[in-house]
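Re: the request from the purification team.
They wanted to know what the chain is likely to look like in 3D before they choose a buffer screen. I agreed to run a prediction and write the result into the notebook, where they can find it.
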Amino acid sequence: MSCREGLMSPQTETKARVGFKAGVKDYKLTYYTPDYVTKDTDILAAFRVTPQP
């Protein structure tokens, strides 16, 4: 046992897989909902992108 081992707090286990998994997901699996109907309280935004040379 090293002298630092007794002073360290116990390790905690993270459960990243429960709510989040790193990586690229298919667009339709995460954002696209074909049967979604907009509501009066929804905020919609549009952006104009100007191509740069």
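For the purification team: Residues 16-19 form the longest helix (4 residues).
Please add any questions underneath this entry.
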